[in-house]
Amino acid sequence: MSPAKTSASAPRRIFLEICRRGEISTGRLARAVGLRPSTLQIKLRGLERKGLVEFHQGRRKVGLNPGFGYVVGIDMGASHLHFALGDFRGEVLNDSAVKIRPEDGPWKMIA
């Protein structure tokens, strides 16, 4: 792999590793993605500036920034609607369920 390609893909590899493992020590993360700790810190600062990650315990651990964005999940069934709101880490912030009857028709689901 060329140095330019490696450098460009490093933030992506770092981000995906944090997504996969959750909060992780920077030492362990450096080993997992094959970067020197000093290089990792530079790349992490870039991800932090974008709001994607945040540091914990000083700069010894890093994880996803839960405030970066939100996700909404919707489960629509014949007899229920279930909604869930999660943060960027995947933690459920709120959820609700509504029972419906098929005979109520589609307008009950839309309303």
What can you see in these coordinates?
This protein has two domains: 3-65, Arc Repressor Mutant, subunit A; 70-110, no CATH class. It has four helices and six strands; from the N terminus they run αβααβββββα. The protein has helices at 3-21, 26-33, 37-49, 106-110, and strands at 24-25, 53-56, 61-64, 70-76, 80-87, 92-99. The strands form two sheets. It has a three-stranded antiparallel sheet. It has a three-stranded antiparallel sheet with strand order 4-5-6, with no helix packed on it. α1 packs across α2 (26-33) and α1 packs across α3 (37-49).
Summed up:
With 111 residues, the protein is of the alpha+beta class.
Descriptors for this entry?
111 residues; three-stranded antiparallel sheet; 30% strand; Arc Repressor Mutant, subunit A; 2 domains
* CATH fold annotation of the largest domain: Arc Repressor Mutant, subunit A
CA-atom Rg in angstroms: 20 Å
| CATH homology group of the largest domain | Winged helix-like DNA-binding domain superfamily/Winged helix DNA-binding domain
Give the distance, in angstroms, between the N- and C-terminal Cα atoms. Answer: 54 Å
- Compressed to H and E, one letter per element, the order equals HEHHEEEEEH
Low-confidence region ranges? none
SSE inventory with pairings:
Elements: H1 3-21, E1 24-25, H2 26-33, H3 37-49, E2 53-56, E3 61-64, E4 70-76, E5 80-87, E6 92-99, H4 106-110
Helix pairs in contact: 1-2, 1-3
